[in-house]
Task: inverse folding
């Protein structure tokens, strides 16, 4: 009879995909304070600008992040940086600085983004070019060459970079669904991170497309800090490259949307505010 009873027992329920509490708190209800913080940000020296350099594998969403930040600050969909629509598409070929215009047409926010060619095992940006960009040696319009680095006698080599030419925050953009990247690419990310660390440049990781990783996040972005699988992915990448968890931010870029979404804005503003906070001390040390 004991055997009959054991056979009649229902199977245990599957483990919950959620933590009992979010592992990171974020204010989903009020984007206005974060938006105001970004809009009112001013470096101590009015002639300074915070330079944010983006790098990462092709198709991860570097250009989309730039466009998404501009969309949030403008309150409408905005497209300035060209976006590759397939994973293999690499549209960013030149070193380009993106300024974000304020409400007045003659004023800009005191931070700029630099996009780079994607990191891949053979055709991507040369690691040494990213290192040179960190130091401010790469000039606007330089066309990346995967086979060779920028030489000192090239017309796009900046021999005397100013504090504004140098990078103040390095941002690695990673597709949350493609963490099983080739070892060569992972090693390039580590090499760039080491150079930034040697230069005292803070580093941030943006994890894009979390909604494609988990149906629970796709259902509601508010689940992003509740879902176990995403945190596991972040912890794995943190351990692999040595970037602490409090410098890693999941973000959904604007892609198919035609209207602004409050939850999308919340994640973008959270990442952007921390990028500014991490970079501000660098402006003082590089004066």
Result:
């Amino acid at each position: 009879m004991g055997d009959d009873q054991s056979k009649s027992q229902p199977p245990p329920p599957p483990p919950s995909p959620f933590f009992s509490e979010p592992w990171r708190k974020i204010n989903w209800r009020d984007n206005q304070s974060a938006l105001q913080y970004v809009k009112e940000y001013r470096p101590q020296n009015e002639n300074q600008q915070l330079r944010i350099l983006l790098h990462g594998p092709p198709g991860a969403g570097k250009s989309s992040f730039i466009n998404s930040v501009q969309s949030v600050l403008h309150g409408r969909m905005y497209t300035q940086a060209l976006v590759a629509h397939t994973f293999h598409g690499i549209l960013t070929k030149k070193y380009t600085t993106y300024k974000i215009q304020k409400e007045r047409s003659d004023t800009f926010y005191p931070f700029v983004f630099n996009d780079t060619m994607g990191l891949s095992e053979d055709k991507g940006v040369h690691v040494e070019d990213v290192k040179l960009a960190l130091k401010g040696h790469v000039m606007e319009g330089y066309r990346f060459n995967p086979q060779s680095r920028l030489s000192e006698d090239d017309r796009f080599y900046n021999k005397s970079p100013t504090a504004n030419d140098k990078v103040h925050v390095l941002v690695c953009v990673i597709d949350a669904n493609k963490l099983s990247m080739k070892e060569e690419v992972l090693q390039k990310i580590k090499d760039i991170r080491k150079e930034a660390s040697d230069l005292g440049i803070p580093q941030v990781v943006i994890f894009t497309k979390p909604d494609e990783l988990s149906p629970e996040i796709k259902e509601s972005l508010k689940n992003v800090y509740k879902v176990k699988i995403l945190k596991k992915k972040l912890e794995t990448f943190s351990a692999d490259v040595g970037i602490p968890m409090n410098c890693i931010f999941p973000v959904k870029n604007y892609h198919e949307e035609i209207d602004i979404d409050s939850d999308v804005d919340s994640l973008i503003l959270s990442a952007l505010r921390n990028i500014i906070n991490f970079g501000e001390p660098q402006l003082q040390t590089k004066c």
Remarks:
- The chain has one domain: 55-210+218-285.
- The two ends are 82 Å apart (CA to CA).
- The beta strands are 50-55, 96-101, 108-115, 169-175, 203-208, 248-251.
